[in-house]
Amino acid sequence: PRFTGSLIISSLCVAFLPWLSFRFLLPALLLAAMHARRAWTDENPRRRAAALVVAAVPLLASLALFLSYQHRAFGSLNPAAGYLYQNYGERGLSSRGLLDGVFGILLDRGHGLLSWSPVYLLSPTGLVILFRTRRALGIYIGLLLLAIYLPGAQFVFWWGGFAPPPRYMVAPAPFLGAAICAALAARLRRPFAALFALLLAASLAFGWLGCARPGLLYKHRHLAAYCFPRFPLRIFPAFFRKEALTWPLAAAWSAGIAALTAFFCARRSTAKPDPK
Asked: What's the whole-model pTM score?
């Protein structure tokens, strides 16, 4: 929380985020707020003031330069001016359906995060545990996840366009991984560890197949459709090309994830404390 080299480096990294994509503007503001909150805990007024300056000034200066560039290059102070200047127009910043991207970016059978990396199915359990045990950290991780996930989900090409899926979930993946680590550290009982091992193995297998056959990542279909024709991909809803069962399957998956999270969190709350 003090005026340290690590705070300076971290603040400079946060200040660079909006230049990667205008979608990182909100996460950058949240991270700067986290720095400011930590700086405020210093009991020394001078160190506190110095730390607050270091937490805020790099991002403010970066935003001023970024908006100046936007205005000079595209004639607008809108952070998304580069996208609006292209053929996307206003439609590029809104999904084809209100909830298509919200569910599709997670559950779509060809582009969703859970169909490619099912290990993240356990992330909600970790987020609930973090909120219970380290509330401030859990809130920050949850807000950062939403700040990255929701703008990507509302983009008209939420599936990533001509890119390997799920493109827009790469940035928040470390936060989802941190939630899983919190769940593992909580020493949940064997069913959680067994399910984690199974889902991790499936995720690594899909990742290996993608590295082995990269050309198949651009066909808007899951690799398993080519490598394992009998793999039950139809258990996932299809949002890229909607079907009659798209929304019933999405509702079933949402209820199942909620039930699984409640099951593991309930088992943790009734487990005996570790004598160590």
From this structure: 0.86
